[in-house]
Each structure stands twice: as structure tokens, then as C-alpha cells.
Amino acid sequence: xxxxxxxxxxFAIAAITSCTSAKTSSTDAPPAPPAPPAxxxxxxxxxxxxxxxxxxxxxxxxxxxxxxxxLKEQLYEYASDEMEGRMxxxxxxxxxxxxxxxxxxxxxxxxxxQNGEYFQNIPKEFFGKKDITSENVLAFIEGSEKPEEVxxxxxxxxxxxxxxxEVFNGADDDGSGTIALVEIAEAFxxxxxxxxxxxxxxLFLHVTAEEIGLQGSKYYAExxxxxxxNTIADLNIDMIGRIDPEREAKTNYxxxxxxxxxxxxxxxxxxxxxxxxxxMDLDYTYNGKDDPNRxxxxxxxxxFAEKNVPVIFYFNGTHADYHKASDTPDKIEYDLYxxxxxxxxxxxWELANSDNRPMLTxx
Length: 363
Prior knowledge:
- The chain has helices spanning 2-26, 57-63, 68-78, 91-107, 171-193, 215-222, 264-277, 301-305, 334-353; strands at residues 119-122, 134-141, 146-156, 162-163, 166-167, 200-207, 231-237, 253-257, 281-283, 311-315.
- It has 363 residues and is α/β, with parallel strands linked by helices.
- The chain has a single domain (63-339), classed as Zn peptidases (Aminopeptidase), CATH 3.40.630.10.
- The longest helix has 25 residues, at 2-26.
- It is globular and about 55 Å long.
- It starts with a helix and ends in a 10-residue tail after the last helix.
- Mean pLDDT is 91; it is low at 1-29 and 37-46.
């Protein structure tokens, strides 16, 4: 019994050795070619994807930095009694321009006037018989691809001062436009800091002397820091914090004036930006040169339109507190105000980053 077991074991060992030798000999064939290297990750994989609804997540990210809370905090400062109603040429208006300059300095947004200054000084001769001087405030973000092309976003910094010791704060007119412009600039600056700056340059233009005949914007249009031929559009913000009594039933609106007056391209880009990101009711009730209110001629966009620069005027309409001491920050509709400011931001983003600038409509 033991002997047979030894013989069987010996046979098994021999068989295993034979199989191993056969397997080893099969490796003498030529080696297989090496596997190709893994394909590199495409740079586009690192970029944000468009959302299912067509929104660019970068635009959504930066528009959402414009909040009702921040607008409210700054508007209460800007439309306070300390600013004395911001009448052109007064100490209150000087406080206002220094306030704005300080905001841009904190954000590290450079000045847009000559030699990097923030003020474009307007000599008293320009004001005719009025013995005053004043200044526009300019801040500037340079474009990454087409820096010579400039989008202007404007708002007037002045109001009507004091009367009989009563301060006219001008919270809606035009504190709302002024602070919206600051917040829009901050959103673009954050985008630039994070490597997503605008392809075209943007001029944030706070004009003086609107209340005495659009004098600040007229001065800029006659003495442009950046050639008007290279100015692709002006988005003008004048009163966007309140609700027109005519719209109290449907408040998700803003009046647009002038968007198709000079450029159908501008109108179409504006509509697209709104439909994609905000979906506000763009109301064109006052969008006519024959409008009896003549709103097309009554704010600073018109100084650019006269020079054939395409324009949009954003406006909430008038209300019972228009040009009264009761135009105060506590009456602003801050959520609606923020939504309108976001609309202007996304429209500016579209204009600053589109392949083509809006062209003038022929005829």
C-alpha cells in the first residue's frame, strides 16, 4: 500500500513538471505590442457645463452675488441725509463722488478717467451761467480679448439737494441706479479675479448733473475717454427700485426704452439674456420717440444715442414720491430691485462676451 502511493505521487510530480515546461515554452513567442497610452483629459472637461435650461453656470454664479441685502445696505448710506441731496456742485455731491471713489478703491477696480483717475472734471464754463464745477466718476475693467471695444453702463449720481431745510434723498432717483452700478461692477470684478473677466472692456460711468439737463453725460459724450466709435452700447440705469402704480397688479417688470431705436441686435441680445436668466416682463410701453412723457429724451442714455451709440434705458416709471423728500430708502422694493440689477448684469455679460458687437440698424 505504501509503495503504490509513492509510485502514484512520483507520477503526479512528473506530470506537473511536464505541464510547467510546456507552459514556459509558450512564452517564447514575440511579445504583444504595448497598450496605447491613456488619452489626455480634454481642457473642456475642466470647464463648467451649460445647464439643462441653457444657462451658463458662471453667469448664474456672478449674478447671484448681487443681493437685496447688499443693495439695501449701500443705498441707505448713499441716500442718507449726510449726502445732503447730492445737488450738482454742492458739498453733498462732493461727498457722493468720494463715496463712489472709495467703493471702487476697496474693490480694486481701477479709475477709468485720464491717467487712471476716477474723476472726469467738468469745468464751470461747460455749465454756462451756473457758477459750479462738478465731476463724473469713472471706473474701468479692461477686456481680455477685445479691450479696445467698450461697453458703458451708466447711472446719474446727483439729485436735487435740499429745500427749506428738507433733504431730498433721491433713493430711487437715482440712488437705485447708482448702487446697482456699483454692485454690477463688483460682480464683474469678482469674475475677473477668478479668471472669468469680460472679453470686452466695461466702463462704469457715474454721471453728474443729470437733474440740470443731462450735463454730465453730455460732457462725457463730447469728451469721451474711450472713442465713441469703439463704444458698443450704453446701458443706462435710472430709477429701478420702485413700482409704477400702473403695474401694481403685475410687479415683475421693468420698462425698457430705446433698445431697438438704433440697433435691432441690441434689442435681440437683451431679450435673449432676459429669457435665459431672469424672465422678467420687459415692458415697452414708453419705448417711442413720440411718447408724450418723452422718457427717451430725459435720461443720460440720450447723450449717447445722439452720437449713434446703441442704448437701453432701464426704468421703473414714476411714482408719488418722484422728486419729493419722501423718495427714501425705506420705500424701495429690494427683492425686485435686486432682480432688475441682475437683469442688467446678465445683459452686460452677454454684450461684453458675445462674438459680435451689436450693429446699428440701417435706415
